[in-house]
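Hi, here's the filled form for the chain we discussed.

Project: internal
Contact: R.S.
Residues: 255
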Amino acid sequence: MHIPSLKNVVSADEWQLRCDLAACYRLVALYGWSDLVFTHISAKLTDAATDGEHHFLINPYGLMFDEITASSLVKVDQHCNKVIDSPFPVNPAGFVIHSAVHAGRADAGCVLHTHTRAGVAVSAQKGGVLPISQQSTFVLGSLAYHDYEGVAFRDDEKPRLQADLGSANFLVLRNHGLLVVGKTIADAFLSMYVFENTCRIQIDAQAGGELTHVSPQIISGVAEAMRAQTVGTGGGFTWPSLLRKAGRESPGYDS
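And the returned structure, exactly as it came back:
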């Protein structure tokens, strides 16, 4: 499949964002979090605001995540209208969720949503995320829940989703999957890595004996612990190494 390069068509900042987002899609595929073509990762173009609205990059609907490139990403406005012509469609149901989060959260530079086996399993549990692992403590410090309303293609769900998310960075979509909000693509990827492992660990632990819960006092101090772990840089601490991994194992994302 030949897709003309947009490197000399868009700004340098947009091209960098496209490369990072394409790498993120490839990494999601490499880590086994994709669901054929049915989930999405969106990134906001901070230099493209017009009349109070922003433009976003999202996946070309129909391509597998390991096929996505910087040039194939679709640029849309807040109403899912294409800003740059593309032969690929955008999934309206996916964009309802992402546009709601971007509209409700000025700090949402990237929104990453998955339907993984472990994530959906935990989303179906009445107790939700349990405080049973170190990974879970990072999630529980900024976690919210949104009840299932069917496939998300109705705009009237947006206010309820925004209200449920609030200022949290981790969202369990009940009976549906996981969602994270990041200031950057790197932050969103690291958050989903922790969120997904939290759910995998929980499902594995529940198959064994009685569970031990982490003290609430430890969870309340988790923000400082995360800053210490990432030297104050959040996802930016791990992103260069992840880009090298994407380049080795899924080359061509930056084309």
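Let me know if anything looks off before we file it.
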